[in-house]
């Protein structure tokens, strides 16, 4: 074979004309005894390659005839524009080396979701999954870029914890020698102790939720992009969240336009997200709006359900930020809203907000100012039945120089799902973990 340097399929199409050396896998294969059409795939794109019997020995042609989907090859040929080809170019092959002839590929259009899930490690090779994984990579890079440009320090916290960070019913218990421990649902409790040393911090890491939910928007293991800011105000947190979301979408537009096209994504809400300010409304305003627009009777104090979030999102073409939720439906560490401090317990609200994604993609962010008072935190924990001894390290952050601070977490797969226009969150991650899916 010609020793010409191999280039990517995308690189060859950028050259447009002339001799190229390519390597990859057979994406499609068809033809006759005299001519074969091989669509070659690599990580960058696909290109149609034409092989004519007259250009190859009888022995090599017999091997070519045995090629199957996902066989691996190296080839040299002349590339030229061709509007009839799948991606607008065609390579006339002069030489080919068959690296490996694959077995019959166990993925076809007739597979149901369970069987496709069993073959997930192979389904990653599909153009759809490749496009999603590239967008995912861009999103992770954009998150890091955003925080570092804003002067945040990256900080990691433990994955194995002695106490739950959220509801005790949705944590995974693990045996830690002779003790009971839990997989982290959030980095938050440890992060709050670190801001006194490092200032503004962030982390991108997996979180675990043992929610017995098999819906299209839940994973038991997902990636959490979290931040914590000392001396914050509630308004500052909302600005950070909106700026981060806008930055992420803008980066995807800059880097992954072709991947969005492969996914056939309608980009109207993405474009609006970049160009518009997000609507901000309180929980109370939200339930009044849902009553007005959809005749939903939501008792004040009841958390918004999926159907209500979806209906609310349908009124906007960008994410919407809902603030000041009832205290009773939010976590123990959220700071009470100053406006409701003197009200009865069942009328109190907190300085917390959710960012609801457009097009029915649900909660993308959860945020709050943190409660500064040690006594209030203890009272809140007692009310939900937590053992105060498990939080002694956390209480020290209120004993020694307590300050106003807050933070939020982004569910990265939720954001990926929305940006890619996915029907199920499982496709936002390479190997999804759901209530009924533990392998591969």
Task: Write a structural description.
The chain is elongated, with a radius of gyration of 27 Å. Helix content is 32%, strand content 25%. It has two domains: 9-100, Nucleic acid-binding proteins (OB fold (Dihydrolipoamide Acetyltransferase, E2P)), CATH 2.40.50.140; 117-428, 2-Layer Sandwich (BirA Bifunctional Protein, domain 2), CATH 3.30.930. With 440 residues, the protein is of the alpha+beta class. It has an eight-stranded mixed beta sheet with strand order 6-10-11-16-15-14-13-12. A five-stranded mixed beta barrel has the order 1-2-3-5-4. A three-stranded antiparallel beta sheet has the order 7-9-8, with no helix packed on it.
Question: What would a concise description of this structure say?
Answer:
The protein is of the alpha+beta class and 440 residues long.
What's the structural blueprint in terms of helices and strands?
Elements: H1 9-15, E1 18-31, E2 35-41, E3 46-52, H2 58-65, E4 72-81, E5 89-100, H3 113-118, H4 120-123, H5 127-149, E6 153-154, E7 160-161, E8 173-176, E9 179-183, H6 188-198, E10 201-208, E11 221-230, H7 234-255, H8 257-262, H9 268-275, E12 280-282, H10 283-294, H11 306-313, E13 320-323, E14 352-357, E15 362-369, H12 374-383, H13 392-399, E16 405-411, H14 412-420
Parallel strand pairs: 3-5, 6-10, 12-13
Antiparallel strand pairs: 1-2, 1-4, 2-3, 4-5, 7-9, 8-9, 10-11, 11-16, 13-14, 14-15, 15-16
Helix pairs in contact: 5-7, 5-14, 6-13, 7-9
């Amino acid at each position: 074979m010609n020793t010409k340097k191999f280039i990517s399929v995308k690189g060859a199409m950028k050259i447009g004309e002339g001799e190229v050396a390519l390597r990859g896998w057979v994406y499609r294969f068809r033809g006759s005894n005299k001519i074969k059409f091989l669509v070659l795939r690599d990580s960058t794109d696909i290109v149609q390659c034409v092989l004519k019997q007259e250009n190859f020995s009888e022995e090599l042609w017999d091997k070519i005839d045995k090629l199957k989907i996902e066989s691996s090859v190296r080839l040299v040929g002349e590339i030229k524009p061709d509007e009839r080809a799948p991606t607008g170019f065609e390579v006339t092959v002069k030489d080919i080396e068959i690296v490996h002839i694959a077995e019959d590929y166990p993925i076809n259009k007739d597979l149901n979701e369970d069987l496709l899930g069993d073959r997930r490690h192979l389904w990653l090779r599909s153009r759809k999954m490749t496009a999603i994984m590239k967008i995912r990579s861009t999103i992770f890079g954009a998150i890091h870029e955003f925080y570092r440009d804003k002067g945040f320090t990256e900080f990691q916290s433990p994955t194995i914890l002695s106490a739950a960070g959220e509801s005790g019913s949705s944590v995974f218990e693990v045996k830690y020698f002779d003790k009971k421990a839990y997989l982290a649902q959030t980095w938050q409790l440890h992060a709050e102790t670190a801001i006194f040393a490092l200032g503004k911090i962030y982390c991108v890491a997996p979180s675990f939720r043992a929610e017995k939910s098999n819906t299209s928007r839940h994973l038991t293991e997902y990636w959490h992009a979290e931040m914590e800011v000392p001396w914050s105000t509630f308004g500052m947190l909302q600005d950070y969240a909106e700026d981060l979301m806008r930055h992420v979408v803008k980066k995807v537009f800059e880097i992954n336009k072709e991947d969005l096209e492969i996914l056939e994504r309608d980009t109207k809400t993405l474009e609006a997200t970049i160009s518009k300010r997000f609507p901000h409304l309180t929980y109370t305003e939200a339930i009044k709006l849902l009553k007005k627009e959809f005749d939903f009777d939501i008792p004040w104090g009841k958390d918004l359900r999926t159907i209500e979030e979806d209906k609310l999102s349908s009124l906007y073409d960008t994410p919407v930020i809902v603030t000041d939720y009832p205290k009773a439906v939010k976590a123990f560490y959220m700071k009470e809203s100053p406006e409701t401090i003197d009200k009865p317990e069942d009328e109190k609200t907190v300085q917390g907000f959710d960012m609801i994604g457009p097009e029915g993609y649900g909660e993308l962010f959860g945020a709050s100012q943190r409660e500064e008072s040690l006594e209030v935190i203890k009272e809140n924990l007692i009310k939900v039945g937590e053992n105060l001894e498990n939080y002694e390290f956390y209480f020290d952050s209120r004993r020694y120089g307590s300050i106003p601070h807050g933070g939020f977490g982004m569910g990265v797969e939720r954001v990926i799902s929305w940006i890619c226009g996915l029907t199920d969150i499982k496709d936002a991650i390479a190997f999804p973990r759901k209530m009924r899916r533990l392998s591969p």
